Amino acid sequence: MEDDPNHILMQIAREDRIYPTVYRLNIYNNRLSRVRRHRETVFNWYADGKDELRLATGYKQLQPVALRFDDGRLRNVDISHLAGLGPPPAPVAILKRGNEAIVSANNGKNTRGLYRVNIVGFHGRFSLIIGVG
Description:
By secondary structure, the protein is mostly beta strands. 0% of the residues lie in helices and 50% in strands. It is globular.
């Protein structure tokens, strides 16, 4: 972690056999402290460069879902328009400011690319970084 080199954030399906919980792990003594309890539908948690949780993704009734943190609370984000054929959008990196991410997405197409996107609503213009436009 940027301000704490003795710890890392990690997600483990420890409290629930399917859904992961986020922990802070001390790399010297292996002690875990829970940061965020698991949540049904969430399979992946994403943090920014300051180790603050920003996004969560998963599935609900076989439909991809995304949630963003807003003042510490998780809010649903409609990503149905982004999937196209194939897997849902997947964050690759949260950018330094914390409100933008690089995501691997179909963006409503049948080809995958890397896009820069505002994570507040996953709406507006996706800026293609690499892939087929």
